[in-house]
Amino acid sequence: MAEGRSVFVTGASSGIGAATAVECGRLGWRVALGARRMERLAAVAKQVEEAGGRAFAHALDVADPGSVDAFCAAASAELGPCDVLVNNAGQNLAALVHEARVEELRADVEVNLLGALYVTRALLPGMLERRAGDVVFVGSDSAARPRPYQGAYAAAKAGLEAFARVLEMETEGTGVRSILIRVGPTGSEFGTRMPQDRIHEILASWKYWGVYRNLHWMPAESVARAIVRTVRIPVDESYPTVVEVQPGGRSRRHRDEPA
Ligand SMILES: NC(=O)c1ccc[n+]([C@@H]2O[C@H](COP(=O)([O-])OP(=O)(O)OC[C@H]3O[C@@H](n4cnc5c(N)ncnc54)[C@H](OP(=O)(O)O)[C@@H]3O)[C@@H](O)[C@H]2O)c1
Questions:
Q1: What is the pTM of this model?
Q2: Domains of the chain, with CATH numbers?
Q3: 115 CA distance to ligand 1 centroid (A)?
Q4: Alpha-carbon Rg of the chain, whole angstroms?
């Protein structure tokens, strides 16, 4: 069961989702890629195939239950039943709550929280029937350490962690695992979507509250490898429930830097 798996990745058009898809391709796995930007998805699908995997790209808006059902049905028909679901699609508004528009707050919750609920709900019955499957949630350290300018995002990611834990209990003994990957600062398009003219004030506020001590970040490929390594742990060996991934542990530059 550990090899030759079929993996469905939401938000596979860039960043961590794209890197996870390519990493799965390197193992020769079948990968269903879902996101809204189809041209970007096609380019990632090509990389998956070049890496040695089989790719299937299909439009997906995780905030739309109809789109979720269409994606899951098309991907299952093309690649076979889903062995690993990577709930990765996410967005971050980065605004003070009183400045945000209602639609922006709603979108943060819909994409980061409801989207994962919808896709999991669609694919879980098949996993339970087959008594096998890994449901991965790409969470954020903003859930454990919430910060200003991320009100809706942090609340949604905290909700995601709660849901991952509930799923762990609801599926106990079924062969299905619920795995939360809690991610720290990562280089992707995520940061570039934040209001660039306010980056300094946002980072200063995070520093003020002690949640952002340095500018360390890791490449999306590092997170992707952590995800793939985690789902390759054999089911009968152990059950990784929460894995927090942070930028490189080797560098202790502060020791050499003046205070
Ligand atoms: N980068 C970080 O520092 C960081 C830290 C902690 C956690 N994370 C989490 O990591 C995950 C991936 O983010 P990233 O850093 O790789 O950022 P990214 O490069 O911006 O990727 C986000 C992905 O989500 C997709 N997406 C957004 N809205 C969607 C929707 N409604 N339906 C389907 N797909 C949607 C985007 O595709 P389309 O726009 O094409 O739909 C894109 O593929 C997110 O869940 C994020 O919260 C990131």
A1: 0.96
A2: 6-247 (3.40.50.720)
A3: 12
A4: 18
